[in-house]
Each structure stands twice: as structure tokens, then as C-alpha cells.
Structure to design on (376 residues):
């Protein structure tokens, strides 16, 4: 059956067709009667070698610390090469290693642009990023080549929302600053106003971005008795969680009225450095600014100035530009700035689920099936 059907198929140099043939192979191979015509083109011979079992899909993984369960899942049906050094893969190495691979398992630290895609060549069928954010990928260039992109929404939402609340409290209640006071021998007798900060109860929360993570954060803050939640974003979602949240169409109004500005939006060309001098100038002097999205949404020099001049009261950042920050970076010397090293999704469970979802996205694409989570 395989032989006859295949004879009638016109093999073309196209990733999608190759995947279809590979699927057909899987079905036909169980009856053990498939014979292929001699192939002239590279792509055809690639397919034929895959289909005859001479080669398996080749996957490149850009970090050695990807949870092992995900690597094992990929290894069941693919040849997996993993970058071995305890740091993001060097760009030159990525460009070399990606050549001839069918799939790339990457992280938010890997810039995937035209040059990388050109190095990969025509075999690359899918990029699975172990992240919900995908500003490190030139989506337009990837799509142009018919390559699929998988990402990891949902599985990290709770972890990032928990961390956002933790960062907000650490900033407003001055946890790191007070701890440092102890270390410096500055812990004196109990004093009425020492280490005071703004309360959440009755406060106005301004969410910038009201996607999964923004909503999950806002839901958690209700438990602290906040007075009002409003949000700004691409569209009015109404109040999907019935917590009294209201869409604010004017960002300036939201910034001017909020006691806590909480940023969870994606980094895009529209949001790049949206928090600049003007944005900080309209915020209250008592405002606490929290960012768990991407460092790129903030014009960092403007933030530093706003913190130094007390234009705003404090900031809590899980993300910065660049990452990592060097220990002598000005942000780290500000008493009113809490910086943590991009650990929003860092629960063992979330990171394991992110890795597994990335592997499942890759396998689905290689098998010509719908991806569990695809960037369309
Ligand atoms: C993501 O997945 O984009 C997050 O930033 C990781 O914490």
C-alpha cells in the first residue's frame, strides 16, 4: 500500500510535505512493506533516510540544565544533542550546532534571528522555546520559513503570579533593606516609623498587561484587601475573574492613580521602553513600581533617576537590561530598589512543566500534529 500511495505523491522540497511523508511512513511501516523510489533532491533523500529509519529527527537543546524528563521524552524518538556548558550556548556554537537539525529546544537567553535561521538550513521544522515570552525570537523570519514555534503559556502562570506578589511585598515592606540593616549592625531598639512602607489594604492597583499572569496576580491581591484594581492593555477584557477590575483606556490615568503599578505585559515594539521619563513623571511620589515582564519595557536610566530623585517611592524588578546585571550596577546600590534575578517562574514544578511542554511542542510539530501551545 505504501509503495502505491507514495508513487502517486509528488515529493516537493517543503518541510510540511516532509512531515506528512514521515507520518505516512509511521503508519505504513507497521505493515513492513514500504519501498521508496530513488530520490533526486536533498530534501527527498533526507525524508527517505528518516523514513527508512536510517536517521532519526535531530534536536538541539541549548542548555545542559533542562529537566531530564524532557530530554528523555525527546530521546525516545529523536537524536538529541545538548549544549554542555553551564551557561547559555554561545552564539557561534548555536550557529554551528543548528545546521541540519530538525528541531531547536531553546531558552529566552537564545536570540533566534535571521542569521541563526540561515545557519539552520532547510531541515529546521520547529523551534520550541522553554518560556512564555518570545521576544528573543524573530517570529516573522521564522514564520516566513514555514517553521513552527512552540512556547509555554499557562504552566508558569501561578509561579510568576506568586513571585510578583512576593516581590511587591518585599519592595513595599522593605524586606531586603531591613535584612541588610541587621547585617550592617543597624538594628536598634524598636522604633515607630522605622522601615515603614505603604499598605496594600485599600490601595489602588494598576495592572499593565492583563493576560494570564496579570489576572492571576490581580486575583491574589484581592486577598490583601486592595481597594481598586484597574488595568491597561491591548483590549478591554471586562472583569473576567469578577474581582471588580476595570479597564483603563488611558495609560497615563492608570499610572497617575495607582499606588502599585504592576507590569506583566509582553515585550513588543509597542511596549519597548514604555516606562520612560514621562511615565515615571505622572506616577505618585508614593508609587511602587513592580516589573516581572521583561527589562526592555523600562527605560532603565529613567527609572534610576526616578528612584534617586524620589519621583516614585520604590521599585521591585525581576527583570532588567541587561541580564545578568553586574554587581556594581547603579540599580543595585539604590536603597529603594529590590532586584531579583529573573526567577518569576522558578518553581521546580513550573520549570519541569515548561520543559515537558517544550518537548511535547517539538514532538507534535515533528509528527505533523497540532502543537499543544503554538505561537501562531
Ligand atoms: C518566560 O517564560 O518568559 C519567563 O520570563 C520565565 O520566567
Amino acid at each position: 500500500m505504501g509503495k502505491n500511495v507514495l508513487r502517486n505523491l509528488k515529493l516537493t522540497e517543503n518541510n510540511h510535505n516532509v512531515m506528512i511523508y514521515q507520518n505516512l511512513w509511521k503508519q505504513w511501516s507497521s505493515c513492513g512493506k514500504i519501498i521508496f523510489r530513488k530520490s533526486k533532491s536533498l530534501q527527498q533523500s533526507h525524508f527517505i533516510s528518516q523514513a527508512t529509519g536510517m536517521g532519526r529527527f535531530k534536536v538541539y537543546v541549548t542548555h545542559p540544565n533542562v529537566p531530564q524528563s524532557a530530554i528523555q521524552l525527546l530521546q525516545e524518538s529523536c537524536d538529541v544533542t545538548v549544549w554542555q556548558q553551564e551557561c547559555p550556548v554561545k552564539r557561534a556554537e548555536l550557529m554551528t550546532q543548528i545546521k541540519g537539525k530538525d528541531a531547536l529546544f531553546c531558552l529566552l537567553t537564545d536570540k533566534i534571528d535571521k542569521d541563526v535561521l540561515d545557519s539552520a538550513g532547510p531541515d529546521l521544522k520547529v523551534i520550541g522555546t522553554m518560556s512564555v515570552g518570545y521576544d528573543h525570537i524573530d517570529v516573522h523570519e521564522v514564520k516566513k520559513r514555514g517553521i513552527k514555534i512552540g512556547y509555554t503559556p499557562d504552566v508558569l502562570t501561578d509561579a510568576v503570579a506568586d513571585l510578583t506578589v512576593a516581590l511587591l511585598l518585599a519592595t513595599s515592606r522593605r524586606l531586603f533593606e531591613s535584612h541588610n540593616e541587621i547585617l550592617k549592625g543597624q538594628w536598634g531598639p524598636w522604633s515607630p516609623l522605622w522601615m515603614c512602607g505603604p499598605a496594600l489594604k485599600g490601595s489602588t492597583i494598576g495592572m499593565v498587561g492583563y493576560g494570564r499572569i496579570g489576572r492571576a496576580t490581580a486575583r491574589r491581591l484581592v486577598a490583601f484587601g486592595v481597594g481598586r484594581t484597574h488595568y491597561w492593555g491591548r483590549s478591554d477584557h471586562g472583569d473576567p475573574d469578577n474581582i471588580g477590575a476595570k479597564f483603563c483606556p488611558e495609560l497615563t490615568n492608570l499610572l497617575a492613580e495607582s499606588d502599585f503599578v504592576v507590569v506583566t505585559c509582553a515585550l513588543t515594539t509597542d511596549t519597548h521602553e514604555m516606562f520612560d521619563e514621562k511615565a515615571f513623571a505622572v506616577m505618585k511620589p508614593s508609587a511602587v513600581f513592580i516589573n516581572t515582564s521583561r527589562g526592555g519595557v523600562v527605560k532603565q536610566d529613567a527609572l534610576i533617576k526616578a528612584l534617586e530623585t524620589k519621583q516614585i517611592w520604590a521599585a521591585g524588578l525581576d527583570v532588567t537590561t541587561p541580564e545578568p546585571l553586574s554587581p556594581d550596577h547603579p540599580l543595585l546600590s539604590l536603597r529603594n530598589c529590590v532586584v531579583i534575578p529573573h526567577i518569576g517562574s522558578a518553581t521546580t514544578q513550573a520549570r519541569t512543566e515548561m520543559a515537558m511542554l517544550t518537548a511535547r511542542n517539538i514532538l507534535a510539530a515533528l509528527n505533523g500534529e497540532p502543537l499543544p501551545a503554538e505561537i501562531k
In short: Confidence is low (pLDDT under 50) at residues 1-18, 23-53. Residues 108, 131-133, 156, 344-345 surround (2R)-2,3-dihydroxypropanoic acid (CB under 6 Å).
